[in-house]
Design brief:
Helices cover about 70% and strands about 10% of the residues. By secondary structure, it is of the alpha+beta class. Strand 4 and strand 5 form a beta hairpin.
Length: about 475
Amino acid sequence: MPERPNTGSRPFLMGAGSRTVLRCGYAAVIGILVFASAQAYRIQVNVSEQHLEIYRQYTQADEALSRLRRNVWLAGNYARDFFLSADSGRFALLSSQFQTLDMDSRQALSQIEKLRPNEEATQILREKLPEYWATLKPITDSMKNVKPSVAYQFIQQELAPRRSTLYNALRGMTEADQASLQESEAQFVNTRQDAIRRLLFMLGLCVVLGILVSYFSLRHAGRLEREADLQFEEVAQAKREMEQLSARLLEIEEDGRRRLSRELHDGIGQSLAVIQIELSHVQALTDDSQPRVRERLERARELAENTVQTVRNIALLLRPALLDDLGLTPALQWLLEDFQRRSAVACEFSESGVDELLPDSVKTCVYRVIQEALHNCEKHAGASQVRVAVRQSQNVLRVEIEDNGRGVELNPKGMPQRGAGLGLLGMRERAARVGGSLALRSSPGLGTQISLEIPLAEFAGGAQRVPIPETGVNASVYSNPVGG
């Protein structure tokens, strides 16, 4: 048997190291993916919050500036309408309007101071707005009956310059807010781009690690596949060697049985037969005056006869001479007759077209399979009837063994659930050795059927098949109780 290389320890160590590297690689890839996902979520949250904060501040500041511009503009319009109107209730109305606008302007200024506390425009509003409202207050107190020219001069010299100053300050703040908004948007874009670059770097690193892990995984899988193929080939080679060994053992067993059977039959059997004849001659030479001698010779002759029969039975059990001398059919006929005599189980045997010059391996296989099936039937089945049919067509030899015993439960592989033993395995090995197949069909309480099929095409170059006449025993199926 060829020596196989030792592939145990070194591949195991290499495999252990590769598995450690792959585990670390997978852990790194998963860690980077988790970190990248957390970073992407944080970036999205921060960007959204920053974007909302920028526009919230801009909206609040723009709203406060709009309120101040509206109040300043409305205050000038109310003053102009006051001088143009002659209604007696215009003093109370103007005073109420100025009070409302002043209160709203203070609130807007307070909001601007919170948003822009240290800017120059805010300082200007803080100084000029109270002056503007202080300029408007004397209108309701000391300018009730002034002439239009004085009112016009008051508006142009006192009110308009202060209003222009406030407008300029408010316009400056609006422009500053717009510039701040643009600057904040630029910072926001830069921040987002930096975050995207970091995220892309992590994703690129993850891709690189994924490629490396995939490379090592494929390499490791390839090595495992090669090792598996090598081990499979070793197992297949060992199976082939075991099959060859089993076949050789069967050949040796059959050769040993054949030689031992011949020796028993031709050697010991013939010697015992000669002894039996000599005892008969000695018994014939004695007269009636020696009854005790004649009695002892008779007993010795009977013992020799029984011994000859025992030796012949043993020789037949080992390897029936009928199988080699007369062929398969007579050997099977004798086998079933002996089985029926020993077990009292009714046997039915039928054959059709069985060649007398079948190859020895085929004859031995069929004989041993039927012999083992009958042994299992006698030992386990508890059957009352057995039927054996052997039929040969041009290229196939089919054998059917069926009993009406208790049967067995089979697994999906066609083997008994509670263990097949060595008998059924031996039968299948013998069938496989000659290229045949053996099938077992059984159910609890419904008996057992064994089917053997052997193709004869590969034996076509051996012994030629003798033509079978259309009439006679071998021409048709003869079916009779064995021994009847």
